[in-house]
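Appendix B. Raw example, untouched.
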Amino acid sequence: MQRLVFVILCIVLVSLIVGCETPDQRLTEFVTTSTSQQALQNREMADVTRTAAEHHRLVVEAVEKSRQEVVNLQQDVQVELRQLDAERKSMAESRRRESLLVPVINHLGLLLVAVLPLALCWYLLHGLSSRGQEDAVCDMLIQELIAEPLQNLPGPEPKAAIEHAANPQTPATDHASN
């Protein structure tokens, strides 16, 4: 039995070896076709890889450009924030200054309202007292003029002119004839 198995195996082996030696046209065409298809697929894959690499490079450039734009925008926003902060501080300082000036101006206005009547009263009182001094000086000068004989005055008798000035109802010529 072992011998039979050995013989069958040899026959199968010989048939297989003999079957491989015969040229099979279909197998050759299949191998050629599959090799050319594999080469075509490899070329297409290389093209796809190149295209993907190019698109990846474009995406990286676009991302870099957008990052740069974001950085520029952030810098612009920072500058505007600094300007707004400076403007806010200026307005706050202005409001603080105005809030300090309002009570000062109000107090000065009240002080002025209180001082003006006092100044008016002082002026009126001082004006009356100095007017009294002017009247006293005028009266003294008139007394001196009346007391001295008027020699330098032209016209009728000086005493009659002074009396006429003191009493205008009497004519000056009547006194001159007496």
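End of appendix B.
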